[in-house]
Each structure stands twice: as C-alpha cells, then as structure tokens.
Design brief:
There is one protein chain. By secondary structure, this protein is an alpha+beta fold. It has a domain at 49-173: Chitinase A, domain 3 (Roll). It is built from three helices and six strands. A six-stranded antiparallel sheet has the order 1-2-5-6-3-4. A hairpin with a 5-residue loop joins strand 1 (63-64) and strand 2 (70-75). The protein starts with 14 loop residues before the first helix and ends with a helix. 20% of the residues are buried.
Length: 189
C-alpha cells in the first residue's frame, strides 16, 4: 500500500440511493424550469395590459370576442370591412408576449382567408385607415405547430396593424390581366 493513499471508508447503507435520488430530482427541477422559461418566452398566459395602448384620446378599450381573440381600435377606420374573398393591404408588426418581434412589413398584401384564423377574424373587423392592436390566442394562431424557430409552439401572437386598403380578389385579377395586356400591347410596334 502507498503511503499517500487514503483508504476509502465503506459508505453506510442507502447513501448511494439518496445520492442518485437527489441527482434525479435536480435534473427534473432543472428541466422543468428550462421548459417553463421557454414557454414563458413565447406563449405567455394571456394578453395583459402591456399588449394594448392606453385608453383615451380616441383609443378604445380592448374587446374580447367569443372566439377568444382580443382586439383594440387605436384609431378608427372608415368605410366597409373586407370579407374572406378580399385581399387586405396592411402594415404590421408581429411579436410574442415577451416583446420579441417575429415579423414586420409596412405594405403587405394578405388574402383575408389565407392567414391564421385569428388574424383573418381580426382583418374582417377592420376598416380603411384604422390602426388596431390584436392578441391572437394560440388556438387561433399556429397552435402547437411552429412556422419558424423564432415562434415557439402554442404562442400567443400580438400584432399592431395599420389597415391601409383592401380589394376583392376578382378586382385584383382583372387589374393584373389589364396590366399584362398593356405590357403585351406595348411591346408590339
């Protein structure tokens, strides 16, 4: 036996079981905290007051619709509202409940029926020239699917929307055909 070697004392019965139980408990707690932290990033528990503009000076209080969609009119628009057969031209910023912006566009043409159900429902309540805030619960958004890594599954989606205009799909198709005819006719001499 070496002079520097220290003999190991036998461990009392049950110490290793307690040690491994503690390790498993720590791993489970750490995993749970990591999962909760990831969920809190994008999912949140709902749309609190921070998701909406302060009420007053023409800004209306947010309204919760039967579907669970929450919508606030920041600046009222005028005129008719779009239908499923229309294409809306909007400026928007989409973010998660933690404030992380996942998409934005100043002039986006969107088919009203071609977006997530909550956004479609909101668009059909908007008018030209209006500005709105929208809180879309996960069930009316992407649900447990994630369209991009930046949007976790079951995320609540927050949007600020400037509703610029809308046209019917038939009107847009007719306009496109006229432009194609003009281009084809303009090339012949």
């Amino acid at each position: 036996m070496s002079i520097t070697a220290v003999p190991l004392q036998p461990t009392p019965k049950g110490v290793m079981t307690k040690l491994w139980t503690g390790v498993v408990a720590c791993v489970a707690i750490a995993g749970g905290l990591a999962w909760f932290g990831t969920q809190a990033q994008g999912v949140g528990s709902g749309c609190g007051p921070q998701a909406f503009a302060p009420v007053g000076n023409g800004v209306r209080a947010a309204v919760t619709l039967p579907s669970g969609l929450k919508m606030q009119t920041v600046r009222p628009g005028q005129g008719p509202r779009p239908t499923d057969s229309d294409v809306a031209l909007i400026g928007y910023k989409g973010s998660l409940t933690n404030g992380q912006v996942f998409d934005a566009n100043e002039h986006a043409p969107l088919p009203v029926a071609g977006v997530v159900p909550g956004f479609s429902e909101a668009l059909k309540l908007m008018q030209r020239g209006g500005r709105y805030r929208v809180c879309i619960p996960a069930k009316l958004g992407y649900g447990d699917k994630s369209p991009a890594p930046i949007i976790p599954p079951n995320s609540i989606l927050l949007f600020s929307v400037d509703f610029l205009d809308f046209k019917s799909m038939a009107e847009l198709q007719q306009r496109m055909m006229q432009q194609q005819q003009m281009q084809a006719g303009g090339g012949q001499h």
